[in-house]
């Protein structure tokens, strides 16, 4: 008989946890059901205070389960936010590397062309100064004219406006 009463009380408590709207009514019903099944000696334990404690414990379990679910939802959102931040960072790093890989050859070509242009101009000026110092003969005068033409062609090939 006592085992049947505990089974009915357990079922009633399970229903209380699952449906918290009518906790008080179910608590009174559980007290009545359990009181009929128990003998008169053990029915003293089933008074209103015990039923109220059971109802409060059921409410506590319900509140804690809701809090655990909310904590899990918040944890999932935090993990998703961190994953998004890491993804944005990785994309930013990859785009930066892509820009560097594209711009580095262009920068190297610019520096190389500028250096070649300036180097060609310096070489032409050096040759012209050397020829001017030895400009006594007509052969050297022809070389001076040729060097000036070459210097102009270098300026045309590498105009300053592009650099």
Automatic annotation (TrEMBL):
It comes from the Eukaryota. This is Uncharacterized protein. The chain crosses the membrane at residues 53-80, 86-113. It comes from Mikania micrantha (bitter vine). Keywords: Membrane, Transmembrane, Transmembrane helix.
